[in-house]
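Q: Entry one of two.
A:
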Amino acid sequence: MAGILLAIDIGNTTTTAGLFRGSRLVLSTRLPSRLDLAVDECVEMLSSFFQKRASAIPSPEQAVISSVVPRLTPVYTSAIGTKFGVTPILVSATLPVGLKIGYRRVEQLGADRLANAVAGFHLYGGPVVVVDLGTATKFEVVTKKGEYLGGAIGPGVETASVDLVRRTALLPKVVLKRPKRAIGRSTEEALQAGILIGAAGGIDRMVAEIETELGAKVKVIATGGLAKTVAGLSKRIRRVDPDLTLKGLRIIAERVDLTP
């Protein structure tokens, strides 16, 4: 694959767009995932992105989309076609992604999960566990031989925090920053400790369980909005790659482009 690639990851809360020149990510942006987004508005957003931040970069010759929001998939597909005259690749487990898929019901496998697994294995090798700390906390497991086995899905750190505050009368909303101590000396500190140290401990426990089932030690790569914060509290996360999903989309697009 040569030239410029537009990669878009449509998540439940945030949509991330990235421009690749070859294998290098040269620019990225984050947009809200609005369910009421219309095609003309989407075209305007993409146009604004290029005019303000990517004016020196040629228009993309190829595009790839991963989406967990069915309502927005055709919106971005149409907008990319209108703006750039390109039909994007829609990521799914039916594509030649370079992994053997061991998931029982591949039609239920989220495109973002697949992109993370692809990037985790191709960039860092296996066995690897990718932890995505977004709206949900997702674990993807790939063996040494490149078989994607599946993983685990739980409430996202911020999702759980918001729900906790919503369901209680006196607990305040807090900024999720690294706690100074495990024993909070105020309600704010207690929430930060409970939410973030608890999340890191849950990740470490899940990784230990995965290793027991695999019978092998794994690399642990973290991505997603709170990856840096939680990684500093985890004993198992060894690397944070905030652009991992976009990189996985680029790898998938390249493999599709090279397939006869």
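Q: Entry two of two.
A:
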Amino acid sequence: MKRYLTIISLTFIFLSCKQEQTNREITNIDLEVIKMDSISIRAIQVIDENTLFFAGSNGKTGKTVDGGKTWDIQTIVYQDSIKPSFRSIAKNKDAYFTLSIANPALLYKISDSNKIVYTENHEKVFYDSMKFFSNGLDGIAVGDPVDDCPSIIMTNDGGDTWKKLSCEGLPKFEEGEAFFAASNTNIEIINNTVWIASGGAKSRIIKSTDRGNTWKIIETPIIQGNGPQGIYSIDFYDENNGFIIGGDYSKANDNCKNKAITRDGGETWTIVSDNENPNYKSCVQYIPNGKGKEIFAVGKTGISYSNDTGNTWKKLSDEGFYSIQFVNERFAWLSGHEKIAKMTIQ
């Protein structure tokens, strides 16, 4: 009897280990690139395989509801002359919102009338990304410091009104520390927790576990020290497991200290794949249902994939993109300079 129990136990362990170690080996992707003339698109909001909203340069915002066959694109002009450059987009249950970079900061609720719900005038103003919590009422946008703390604005009424948080309740930033408006992905939210990634003089994580009421700042080992260095994108698979990526935009082929992983909710970070590809990337995303092991990263240096939590990577395409968002484990939308693409995993 003991012999049979031992055999059963060993068989169970073997099968469990085999199942645990079985990860997809993605070798091919299909890219359908859609030309978007005269629009640089860093911010996308994906709904499903047919529906996508975007915000881009030259005051352009748009959407498709038929998988990119047709597009509803509009040009927003402020005070009859300013075409805002949008690099942030967020959607709740009722509407979607776009936020411009540079002075003045302009946050629009997109509709037939394109209502401005927040403005800010300051020579240093520069907003980088925006996102809503799952309830659709609470939202957050983050920008570079105008004083000695990050610029954070929040809404609690679904985006109709926004208020800037006081520096008194925020972590202090180092001179030269800021954010990157590269892909609208330096904010991540799960339940009540929000993480924001910085770069430049310091590469750090600003974290709140109570929807932005209190904050703490966490050091990371990501490359830092000057303007183009730092964390460009952050994603979490669940409340514990997360990934940050970036590098040095001015030295895009460098791959030193540009990728790190956390298993404790962002309290500590460990460099992975150091001095190995991928190099500079502007966006990282976990694949849905990938057990926290399958990760895609995109940037001007191409598309890369890992199936072992970021320890090793495979380059799947040299095509450059700014951002990627998954619909499911086999389909994603991407955006870049004068293009949007649909990606199908083979």
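A: Comment on entry two: The mean pLDDT is 94. The CA atoms of residues 304 and 315 lie 4 Å apart.
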